[in-house]
Fold tRNA (guanine(26)-N(2))-dimethyltransferase.
Amino acid sequence: MVALHELPYPTKRIREGGVEILIPDPNAYRRSDGVYEPAWAPVFYNPRMGFNRDIAVILAAAYRELAGLEKLVVVEPLAGSGVRALRYAVEAGAYVYAADIDPDAVHLARINIDINGVTDRVKIERADANEFMAKLRRSGVKPSIVDLDPFGSPAPFIDVAIQSIGVRGVLAATATDTAPLSGAHSRALRRRYDVKPARTAWEKEQAVRILAGYIIRRAASHEYGARILLAYYADYYVRVYAELRRGAGRADDSLSSLGYGAYCPYCGYTGYIQQPDTRCPYCSAPLQATGPLYTGPLCDPRLVQLMRRIAEERRHTLSDYERVAKLLSRLGEECSIVKPYYRLDRLCSLLRMNMPKPAKVVEALRYKGYRATLTHFDPRGFRTDAPHPVVVNTLVEMRASGTRQA
Ligand SMILES: C[S@@+](CC[C@H](N)C(=O)[O-])C[C@H]1O[C@@H](n2cnc3c(N)ncnc32)[C@H](O)[C@@H]1O
């Protein structure tokens, strides 16, 4: 039993999902505007990431079922308070190997493991993430899931995480460096992800696809194929789940899902191209192109369907069931359309028209026989498989008929 009284800072006991944990008391770490600043606390715990962890445990449970795994082994090398590791153990029945470089985090996580009575299933130690994952690999641990949840970019940990996966497993990564990933900090994007920067009108999807593409490229260099199981954008971060399977042929196949993301600032075209210095296929203007990035589906529909069922069954234990259900339902519709979303406000500004409701545009495109849906990326966005001239004509028709605006 770890002695609770040894903590040299004020604490609070809270519940998140199916676990109860001790955290640094948020009231002691508020900014002058009253907002809690998790980075100021001696150990990092961000309640807003409860949603990210909800999705993580549901995906783990669904993946276990789909892959027919008898035992779920999770590695979490950047564990903070231990909340994620605990939720994997308690809510997905996983065996978890966790680490953190900060001794205060490890101490608090040990207390939290004790509180939840899972000392036999969650092990934590003080270690550097990369050294920890390399050590587990040497000792023969074969993770079903490696979950990277760092401050900022997961790039420094991705190579070792990939190598720590045996024949088959899932790499999950959160990235909070959304400014580089969405093209706003071009030098950091080149440095961290080896990506040619540009700003598209679909910057949140660009961020998700760049991280997914980076995982695919790094996996290929270690002779793993990578299949994107789920990838989304929420709050201020990007989250990608990729299933890795060893094999040079698989690696070659997954590399074929890479390309460059394109945006034409003159006619609003959005799409993918194979070479970055291509001109717009519709108006011949120079395209803004970024990549390499992933150009395939953002989720596996079977997995998402199962996750929806599991979420529904656990609606009372998740930290935000309504939000989880909404994201999964939206992603379920979105993943069949791979073309990037359109920002309707940008397109309407190019066409010098007022913006109709995105749902009306979706309806009009569906009426014409195309697939179309709203997008979780942006309330002003929609995605469709309709060719660009059809999208433009549809809007021009709506302008002419005076369709109600948003
Ligand atoms: C964003 S927090 C993790 C939050 C946690 N995964 C959760 O869901 O609440 C990142 C953690 O990584 C730890 N960290 C930073 N660099 C590290 C490294 N090189 N090796 C291991 N841990 C590290 C920090 O101490 C911090 O606790």
Q: What stands out?
A: Residues 44-45, 49, 53, 77-81, 83-84, 99-102, 105, 128-129, 149-151 surround S-adenosylmethionine (CB under 6 Å). The longest strand covers residues 224-234.
